[in-house]
Amino acid sequence: MVNAQYFYAMTCLIVDDNKVARTTIKQLAGQVKDLTVAGDCANALDAYNFLQENPVDILLLDIEMPGMNGIELTRRLVNQSPIVIFTTSKKEYAVEAFELAVADYIVKPVTPARFLQAIDRARSILNSTRPESPVSQHDSFLFIRDSNIIRRLPLDDLLFAEAMGDFVKLHTPRKTYVVHTTLKAVEERLPADRFLRTHRSFIAAIDKVDSLRDGDLVIQGNAIPVADAYRATLNKRLNVL
User: What is the pLDDT of residues 105-150, one digit of tens each?
Assistant: First the structure.
């Protein structure tokens, strides 16, 4: 059972060759509190290239588009596995779409009620695959392996985490620890209300942010890059006016 106190923000990418359709879906997505639009694309190739640098949780995807269609794009993303919701004016692709294990298949026009139903399904899928927070309200530390020594690292000390190949650097005010793990594994062990992914290679402690400068976060003099896919979520979390 998913811990209800462990909040997950979701990101989505909208892909449709019709500008009006993209605008409509973007407006609907903007009304869902825990959903952030990372971007929108007019064709599947642009979406594929975007996703190589900006992974998202949900793909709101049209099927019939010039060049690569939505079903072909879904097959190409098998190793990235965003939750796919098809939004299309055609009913005849439904069987083929669901063979790809998509979350939902919305026939246009997309109504608010139908959109929310699809997002609820995607949210349920995401929550079922994400672990409960290993850090409860009573826990405030991680144990990390540092040169054959298991050390206790208080979360209050962690400024940001930085991926470097097969290792992650955990930056604190006094020392940087290098741990043999993945940034995804670190993210899963940090409380989502205190830490936020800002880039494919960085996680930042929200309460340690000093300023935003030239598009980067600044934490104790360190510039933390913010990818476009995470910028809207970051602005919401920082209550930027």
Answer: 999 999 999 999 999 999 988 877 765 544 444 458 888 887 777 8
Work out the number of other CB atoms within 10 angstroms of the CB of residue 54. Answer: 17
Q: Does domain 141-237 have CATH number 2.40.50.1020?
A: yes
**pTM for this prediction:** 0.59
In sequence order, which residues have a C-beta less than 8 Å from that of residue 147 and are 6 or more positions away?
none
Name residues whose C-beta falls within 8 Å of residue 40's C-beta, 6 or more positions apart in sequence.
13, 14, 15, 16, 22, 26
Alpha-carbon distances, residue 31 vs 34, 91, 119, 163 (angstroms)? 9, 26, 12, 33
Domain ranges of the chain: 10-129, 141-237
Indicate the fold that domain 10-129 takes in CATH.
Rossmann fold (3.40.50)
Q: Cβ neighbours of residue 63 under 8 Å, at least 6 residues apart?
A: 69, 70, 71, 86, 88, 90, 93, 97
Residue 149's Cβ-count burial label (10 Å; 0-12, 13-18, 19+) is exposed
- Interior angle at CA 53, CA 52 and CA 58, nearest 5: 75
The tokens for 118 are 């699809």
The model's pLDDT over 2-11, given as tens digits with 9 standing for 90+, comes to: 333 334 578 8
